Amino acid sequence: MQMVSISSNRLGAVISGQSLMAIFSAMIMALVVALSPAAQAHHEETPDTALRVLVDDLAKGKLKKRLNKVKALAATEDARVVPVLKALQAGTLFYKRSDKKVFMTAKAADGQYQLTDPLNGSDQGVVGKRSLKKVKTNNRIRREIAGMIAQLTLFSSDEETRRTAAAQMAEKASAADLPLLVRALTLEKNDDIRALLEQARAAAILAAADAGQADKLAAIDLLARSGGARALARLTPAMSDTDAIVADRAKGAVAAINKELAFRDTIQSIWYGISLGSVLLLAAIGLAITFGVMGVINMAHGEMVMLGAYTTFVVQTLILSSAPALAPYALAFALPAAFLVSGTVGLLLERGVIRFLYGRPLETLLATWGVSLVLQQLVRSLFGPTNKEVSNPSWMSGAFDLMGLTITYNRLWIVLFALAVFLVLLVVLKRTSFGLKMRAVTQNRGMAASMGIRTPWVDALTFALGSGIAGMAGVALSQIDNVSPNLGQNYIIDSFMVVVFGGVGNLWGTLIGALSLGVANKFLEPFAGAVLAKIVLLVLIILFIQKRPRGLFAQKGRAVEA
After folding, report:
1. Is-contact 469 275, C-beta < 8 A?
2. Crossing angle of the two packed helices 244-294 and 228-235, in degrees rounded to 10
3. Which DSSP symbol is given to 96?
4. Residues 6 or more apart from 208 whose CB is under 8 A from it?
5. CA dist., res. 462 & res. 468, Å (int)
6. Rounded Cα gap, residues 352 and 354, in angstroms
7. Residues 253, 232: contact at Cβ < 8 Å?
8. SS3 105
9. Helical H runs in 57-190?
10. Using alpha carbons only, how large is the chain's radius of gyration in Å?
11. How far apart are CA 536 and CA 526, in angstroms?
C-alpha cells in the first residue's frame, strides 16, 4: 500500500509538471502570437471593422430607420465619419447591389461612377451605374446631418474647422447639444472660437425647457452683447417665454439689436454709396475736364473707359504668358498703358473730328456718338463680342470686417485710387503751367488767345488728358465689372449726370456730385429697385437744374458769365 501510494504521488507530480510545462508553453506561444505583426494588424483593424459595419449598415433597412443608423454612426465621434455624412447629405453615397458595400461616388466618363472608400479615401475602381444604388435620404435626415457634422468637427485639430463648426452650432444649437458644448468649451483655447461656443451654449439654454430663470437671463444678456442677426434669431423665440421676466428681457434685447442692425445697415449703405461714387468719379472726372474746357458733348467718352479695360486685359494676358512672376503687378503696368492708349485715341479724335465742329454742339454729339459705335465694333472685331476675364490680384481679393461693416478689398482700393487720381489732377490744374493755361482757356478763351496761349493745342491736350483718365478708370472698372464692348455705355449717362449736377468743369463739384449721387442711389435701391432708383435720380437732377442751371458749383469767369 505504501508503494502504491508513493507511485501515485510520483505520477501526480509528473502529470502536474507536464501540465505546468504545457501551460507555460501555451502562454509563451500566446505572447509570441500577440506580439506578431499579424496579430497587431488584426487588433488595429477591429475599430475600423466596427466602423465599416456601421457605414455598410446604411445600405440596409428602410428609410424610416436610417436616421437612427446615421445617429449611431455620428455617436462614434470619429472624424472619418464626416466625409461619409457629407456624401450622404449630398446624395453621392451609393452601395453595390451585389454585396451591399457602401462607397462615396463621383461621375466618370460614359455613365460610369468612380468609387472611393468611405473611410480611407482610397480609389476602388470604376463601375457602371446599374451595379449601384443610392443610399436614400430625406430633408429631415439632411438637417440632422448638418448638426452632426458640426458636432463632429467641434473637436477637430484644425482651428478653422472648429471655428466653422462653432459658428454652425451658434445658429442651430438645441437643448440636446448643451453637454457637447460644455465639453467643447472646457477644451477650447482660442478666444474667438470660445466666444462662438458661448453663443451656442446660450442659445441651447434658451431652447431648454428646464433651464432656470437665472441661466436664461444670463444667456439673453450674452446674446444681446454679441449682437447681429444670429443673436436676433435666437432671442426672438424667447420673447414668448412663459416667464414674464425672461420675455421682457428678451424683448429689450431684440429692440436693442434691431436698433444696432438699422444703424449698421445705414453705415453699410453709405459705404456702398461711396464705393459707387468713386466709380462714378473715375468715369466722370475726364468728362468734366473736356466738357468744362471745350464745351464738347463727347458721347465716345464711355469707349475711352472701355479701351482702358481692354488694355488691362491685354497687358495681363501678355504678362501671364511671358512673365508669370509679375502677374501680381499687372495693374501697375496696365495703368500707364491704359492712359497712353486712351489718351492717344482721344488726341486723334480731337485733331481728326472734334476741332472742325467747335461751336456746333449737336453735330459734335452726333459725330462722337458715331465714333463710339465705330470703336465698339472695332473692339468686337479684335476681341470678340463675349466678356473677357480680368483676374483680381491677391491684394485686391477677399474682404474684411470693420465693426460689423463688410469691406471688400477691390472696392476699397478703387476708392483710394479715385481719390488719388482726383488729388493728382487737382495739383496738375493748380500747380503746373499746363493747368494754368487750361484754366485760362476755360474762363476766357479769347483773352487767353490774345495772351499768346495756343488754345487749339490746349484743347487737344486737354481732350487727351480727359481721355487718358477715362482709360485709367477702365483699369479700375475691369476689377469689378465685365470687360465687354458695352462697358462704357453703362457709365456714360451717369457720368453726364455727375458733371451737370456738380457743375460743368469744376473738379470739386464732380467729386461731391459723384459721391452724393452714389449714396443717394444706394439709399433708393432698397425701396425702388436699381432701375427705378436711377430714373428717380434723373428726375431729381432735372428739377435741380431748373433751379440751378450751372450745377452745385458754377464756373466763374467773364466768358462763362457772358
Report:
1. no
2. 150
3. E
4. 175, 178
5. 10
6. 7
7. no
8. strand
9. 66-74, 81-90, 139-153, 159-172, 178-187
10. 37
11. 13
Strands (E), 202-343: none
Cell (9 digits) for 63: 428609410
**Residue of 135, 147, 154, 141 lying closest to 79 (CA atoms):** 154
Per-residue pLDDT of the chain (562 residues; tens, 9 = 90+): 444 443 444 434 433 444 444 444 444 444 444 444 444 444 444 457 888 888 888 888 888 888 888 888 888 777 788 888 888 888 888 888 888 888 998 888 777 888 888 888 888 888 888 888 888 888 888 888 877 777 777 777 778 888 888 887 887 777 877 887 888 888 888 888 888 888 888 888 888 878 888 988 999 999 888 888 888 888 888 898 888 898 999 999 999 989 988 888 888 888 888 988 888 888 888 888 777 666 778 888 889 999 999 999 999 999 988 888 888 888 889 999 999 999 999 999 989 888 888 778 788 888 999 999 999 999 999 988 888 888 888 888 888 877 767 888 888 888 999 999 899 988 988 888 888 888 788 777 788 888 888 888 888 888 899 899 999 989 988 888 888 898 888 888 888 888 888 877 678 888 888 888 888 888 888 777 777 887 888 888 888 878 887 777 766 544 444 4
Count other C-beta atoms under 10 Å from residue 27's C-beta.
10
The shares of helix, strand and coil residues in the chain, as percent rounded to the nearest 5, are 75, 5, 20
**Smallest Cα–Cα separation from 51: which of 74, 67, 28?**
74
Long-range contacts formed by 158-162: CB under 8 A, 24+ apart: 159/190, 159/193, 162/188, 162/190, 162/193
Locate cell 428739377: which residue? 543
Q: What pairing do the DSSP bridges indicate for beta strands 123-128 and 112-116?
A: antiparallel
Print burial letters for 145-181: b (CB count within 10 Å at least 16), e (below 16). Answer: bbbbbbbbbbbeeeeebbbbbbbbbbbbbeeebbebb
Cell of 413: 482700393
Enter the C-alpha cell of residue 310.
481692354
β-strands 93-96, 102-107 pairing? antiparallel
- Please tell me whether residue 104 adopts helix, strand or coil conformation: strand
Q: Do the Cβ atoms of 95 and 102 come closer than 8 Å?
A: yes
